[in-house]
Amino acid sequence: MERCRETAIAVITDFIRCVPKPEDFLPYLMPCLAQRFGENEILEPAEELRLSAVEMLSLTVEDVKRESCKCTVNFAQSVPEHFHMQADSLVKPLVMSITHQHSRVRVAVIEATGAVIQHGSGRNVDDVLPHLTQRFLDDSPQVRKAGTAVVGGWLLHLRERYSYFHKLIPLLLSSTTDEIPEIRLLAADLWKQAGTQWEKENEEDIKDKMDFLLSPPAHYPPGVDRPVLGCRELVVRNLGRLIPAITHDLTDWLVPTRVKTSQLLSVLLLHAEDHSTQHLQPLLETLYRTCTETEKEVVKNCLAAAKLIGTFVPPPVFLKLLLDHVNAPHSSAHPWAPLMVLTAVLEGCSKPLLKPHLQQIADTLVQPSVCQEYQQAVYLQQLLACVDVLLHQCKSDCGAVSLQLLQVLISIQSLSAEPQLSAKALESAHFLGKVQDLDLMELYRQHMGQLLDWLFASVSSWSSYSPQRLQLHIIVTQSGPVIGEFLNQLMPIVNSCLQPDRDKEMRMSMFTMLAKLLLDGNNTLDSQGHFRDEAESFLSNILIPNLVWKAGRTAGALRTSALSCLLALLHGGTITPGQLLSLEEKLSPQVLSALEEDSQMGRLLASRSLSVMLTLVGRSMHQDTLNKIYPELLKHLDDSSAEVRAAALHGVGLWLSSLTKDYSPELCAPHLQLLFQQLLLHLDDPNLAVQDQVLEILKKGSLVHPVLLKREAEAVKDKHRSPVYCELLLQHISSLSAETTAPCSEKLQNA
């Protein structure tokens, strides 16, 4: 019955899994399987049972392999004098079985391999090592533990071990960073034994070191036990042969290999200490490449290795190599890699050793090729990290290079497109001041003259793409009232940048920056009251030439930005009415022309600027000048923009308030008639808010020439959709006292 055969196979399979020595019943099982499945005609018709029988046979073979491996170990240990003659013949089958799918078989094969090599001729180590090396990345901890034990045993007992130290040492040391504590402890113990044994075997060679190099070097990594001298010497004497292999494996296509190798690198450098100096060039080249790795664990481990270089290698040595790479980032596909390595190395270096080299480091970081050429976030992050390491390592000693570090931090903020990175750079600037017992304003005051000289040196070549333009923006906006103390250095830079022949986009950004400063002039440019001495020249030589009309959208955008700066200048109170009046004849035509800008913002800014001008100097203007202004404002009572219309109406109201006793209503009656007619037209505007605003303005007009206004209002009252507002106006005119029926400019001014 098929069911009986199925049950029999299942029972035997369970026995194989459970009994301690399943090989004892193989003489009974194998003939039966051979008869049933191994003849010319297979006697088992059911495919499912044939499959179950083969699975049972696989279990049997696995046990056979394990027992064979145990037998090999016992044989090698019992009769080594006979075993070595046959040992080499076992290497090939063992290597073929070392990747068996069951971990228990792999463990047995590794143990057998260890015995075969230990008690064999010693000629097959190179044949076995590539396969054994892969088991150190095995998913099974038991397999990795077995490999660790075997390699440790070879380091201690293999007859030809001195020839294979450079191949065995990295395998055992890689287990000292295993994720399983048991394996780490086993590897550390075996490694210490190997080092101690080597010390005894080479006592004469290292006698001086044993006597005089017992204490660890200064600034040894805290919390780390220093390896014994024998372990350190083993690494030092083999490091030259290990580094090429490390470099190769750090570029392996398998991530676990790269991770394991990066961990091993730190272990080797901890043992090598200052002896890694002679291998520094290839080490740094390797670190540059691995710092661009996508696997974060690899990068983390390699930066830990770089930190050890900073701990053990003298600064003059590593700085000579590192700073050359930092100063020539364009020579690498990943320009931030040298900076990343430098940061880690500096972090490992002690403050007393680093202090004499601060100037050299800061001078390198502030070079334009380092801090001004790259805008990638990752590059700027590494540059900032480098500055932060210097600040936290050396603290108050950074005062000697405060200017250079501030320049670098300003450059980072100016180039960064990420607000978070800019905020971190600003925090570092605050910290730079803090380590010198200065706040940010005092820090800027200390260096402002040098910063402005730094910028002025290149101002003639600036364009919209120049980082210096952005650096200036950072300096003037962050320094607050301090910038007002250095106008004699700032204004030549501003004047140079805003000449009409300079880059248009650069001028736009400069005007935008100045507008923000001028709106808060008392706390920025005019904090010392000195900008007023510059205001007239600034308006005459900078703003007015940039308001001259030129064709093109870019030119229009430039005029708009200049208008925003003009409005800020007028609003901020940094120009006196007298200064403004002296330039009114040059300024008014440009502002009136700007009322015709295609840009809505341009028209709005021009309208508002005109209003402020009328407020400041309107009553000092000649009537001919005033009569040129109102028609331009009237044109824009029909503007497509509601904001422009409102601004134009506001300007008309201010124009009326600007009329003094010197303004003759009778002589200027045609002007007033045109003004009243246009305003009465808008008194019937569909927008109630506009009607209310126009009514208030006409009430002011009734104080200028009430008779004329009354006549014009009565003429149009019946033409309006609703006569309500005209009647309100006429009532207002009628309610005026007998004294106000005649022109009364004084009352108008009071109104």
From TrEMBL:
GO CC terms in record: cytoplasm
Start-end of each HEAT repeat: 629-667
Database matches in SUPFAM superfamilies: ARM repeat
InterPro entries reported for this sequence: ARM-like, ARM-type_fold, DAAF5, HEAT_DAAF5, HEAT_Maestro, HEAT_type_2, TPR_DAAF5
Residue ranges annotated for the Maestro/Maestro-like HEAT-repeats domain, each copy included: 584-693
GO molecular function: dynein intermediate chain binding
Name by which UniProt lists this protein: TOG domain-containing protein
